[in-house]
Amino acid sequence: MCSRPTCRNYADRTLTYDYDDRMMAIGPLLDARQEGGYDLCDVHAARIQPPAGWTIVQHRADA
């Protein structure tokens, strides 16, 4: 399920943070929970905005 409160959608993507490099990464859903990772539905993954000065990297699974 999506990590966002009140969202009942299934998670499709995992969001992770790299604080040292000020980078956020969104990739395919991980099989196992990762410390500091957040599983998100496609709707919430598409809405994520990085904080000022951060970059965001989108990893897509090959179709």
Largest sheet: 4 strands, mixed
Cα-atom radius of gyration: 11 Å
Helix segment count? 1
Poorly predicted regions are: none
Strand order of the largest sheet: 3-1-2-4
Given helix and strand content, the structural type is mainly beta
| Amount of beta strand | 25-35%
Estimate the mean pLDDT confidence.
91
Taken together, the total number of domains comes to: 1
The geometry reads as globular
State the helicity in percent bands.
Answer: under 10%
Q: What's the β-strand tally?
A: 4
Order of helices and strands: EEEHE
Q: Tell me the span between the first and last alpha carbons.
A: 22 Å
Verbal overview:
This protein has 63 residues and is mainly beta. The chain has one domain. It contains one helix and four strands. Strands 3-1-2-4 form a four-stranded mixed sheet. A hairpin with a 4-residue loop joins β1 and β2. It starts with 12 loop residues before the first strand and ends in a 5-residue tail after the last strand. The model has no long low-confidence stretch (mean pLDDT 91).
Topology:
Blueprint: E1 13-18, E2 23-28, E3 38-40, H1 42-47, E4 55-58
Parallel strand pairs: 2-4
Antiparallel strand pairs: 1-2, 1-3
